[in-house]
Amino acid sequence: MKKFTSVCVLIFLAVWIAPSFESKEKGEIIAFAAAGPSANLESVARGGLLYDTWWKVVPGATEPKQDHPLWSSQTTNKRKGSVTWRCKECHGWDYKGKDGAYGSGSRYTGFAGIWAGAQKNSVDELAAILRGSSNAAHNFSSVLRPSDMTDLANFLKHGLINMAQHIDYKTKKPIGGDASRGKAQYSVCGACHGPDGKKLNFGSQKQPEYVNTIAKANPQEFLHKTWVGQPGSNPAMPAALVLGWNLKQVVDVLAYAQTLSEK
Ligand code: HEC
Ligand code: HEC
User: Fold this and answer.
1) Cα gap 93→22, rounded to integer Å
2) Phi, psi of 187, deg, nearest 5
3) What is the rounded distance in angstroms from the CA atom of residue 214 to the CA atom of residue 133?
4) Could you report the per-residue pLDDT of 47-104, keeping only the tens digit for each?
5) What's the CA-to-centroid distance between 11 and ligand 1, angstroms?
C-alpha cells in the first residue's frame, strides 16, 4: 500500500512538473529570439561575423582590393574596394537593403534586402545563393569555404533581428529598452569597454569612437554587433546570442549605452 502511494505521488509529481518544464523551455526558445532550437548558436553567431567583415573571420583570407563585381551596377554609393565586399554594405545592418536604413544617404545602392529571402528560403537554398545559384555575380566561392556559407546561411535563417521592432528609425531610440536593467547587463561589456564605455577607442585620438558613439549614431549596427560579436576583435568580444541573452536584454543595453557620454 505504501509503495502504491509513493508511486501515485511520483506519477502526480511527474504530471504536475512536466508541463511547467516544457513551457519554460518553449518560452526560453522564443526568448532566444530568432535562433531556432535546431540551430547551432555558435554557427549562427559566426555567420553574423562573416556578414559584417568575412575576411577578418575566414582563416587565411585576404582583404579584396577590387570592387565586388555587382558594385558597378549602382553608382550612388561612392565607396570603393574591400567595403564593397561586405554583405552589410549592400544589404544593411538591418538586412533590409534599400527598404531599410540604407534607403537614403551615402550608403544608398538600391540593392534589395535579404529579410524576405531569408524567411522564404531554406538554409541549403540560402547557401546556394552565396554560390551564385540565382545570380552568377553573387558567387562567393572564391573567398568563402562551404562551412562559411553554412554559417552565413544559419545566420540568415536563425539570427536576423527585426530591427524596426526594436528601434525607432526616426529618433534612433530603442523601443521598449529599459536603461536601468541595461546598466546591470552592461557590466559584462564594461569588463572590456570600461564602466563609462571609453576604455576602447575604435576611432582616433582626435575623433574618438566608443561603444557609446555607435549606440547613438547607428543603433542597428550596435544591435547586430552586440548580438553576434565583433569580427577579429582582440580580446574576442562574446556574442550575446551565444551567452544566452535574449533580444530584450540586448535592447536594454542599447538603452543604457545611449545614456553614456561620447566625449
Ligand atoms: C555588391 C553588393 C552585394 C554584396 C557584397 C552581397 N550581396 Fe547579396 N545580393 C546583392 C544583390 C544585388 C542581390 C539580388 C537582389 C535582388 O533579388 O534583386 C543579392 C541577393 C542576396 C540574397 C537573396 C535575397 C532574396 O530575397 O532572394 C541573399 C540571401 C544574399 N544576397 C545574401 C548575401 C550575403 C550573405 C552576402 C555576404 C557574403 C551578400 N549577399 C553580399 C548584392 C550583394
Ligand atoms: C572580451 C572583451 C569584450 C567584451 C566583454 C565586449 N566587447 Fe565589445 N568590443 C571588444 C573589442 C576588442 C572591440 C573592437 C575594438 C576595435 O575594433 O578597436 C569591440 C567592439 C564593439 C563594438 C563595435 C564598435 C565599432 O565601431 O565597430 C560594439 C558596438 C561593442 N563592442 C559592444 C559591446 C557590448 C554592448 C558588449 C556587452 C554586451 C561588449 N561589446 C562586450 C571587446 C569586448
Assistant:
1) 34
2) -55, -30
3) 35
4) 999 999 999 999 999 999 999 999 999 999 999 999 999 999 999 999 999 999 999 9
5) 54
